[in-house]
Amino acid sequence: MADLRKFLQVKKLTQVKAAEILGVSQSRVSDLARGKWERFSLEMLIILSTKAGMHVTLRTAA
């Protein structure tokens, strides 16, 4: 989630433009920007990260 928030800040995207890129509503981008992590499943964060052009890897705890 932190990387997605950073993506929005670095690209200086409006919430409306970010919503278009990520394929979600503006209110979902608002939730993301405000760090409301409890509103996102791991699957959704992976999908959004992929749409933002990020490479996602998952690691298991050792």
Task: Summarize the structure in words.
It is a single chain. The chain is mainly alpha-helical and 62 residues long. The protein has four helices and no strands. Helix 2 crosses helix 3. The longest helix is centred in the first third of the chain and has 10 residues, at 2-11. The protein is globular, with a radius of gyration of 11 Å.
Task: Please give the structural blueprint.
Blueprint: H1 2-11, H2 15-22, H3 26-33, H4 42-51
Shape: globular
Return the string of H and E elements. Answer: HHHH
Cα separation of the termini = 22 Å
Average residue-wise pLDDT: 91
Structure classification: mainly alpha
The radius of gyration over CA amounts to 11 Å
What does the largest sheet look like?
none
Instruction: Give the % helix.
Output: 55-70%
- Which stretches are low in confidence, meaning pLDDT under 50 for 5 or more residues running? none
Amount of beta strand: under 5%
* Strand runs, count: 0
Contiguous helical run count: 4
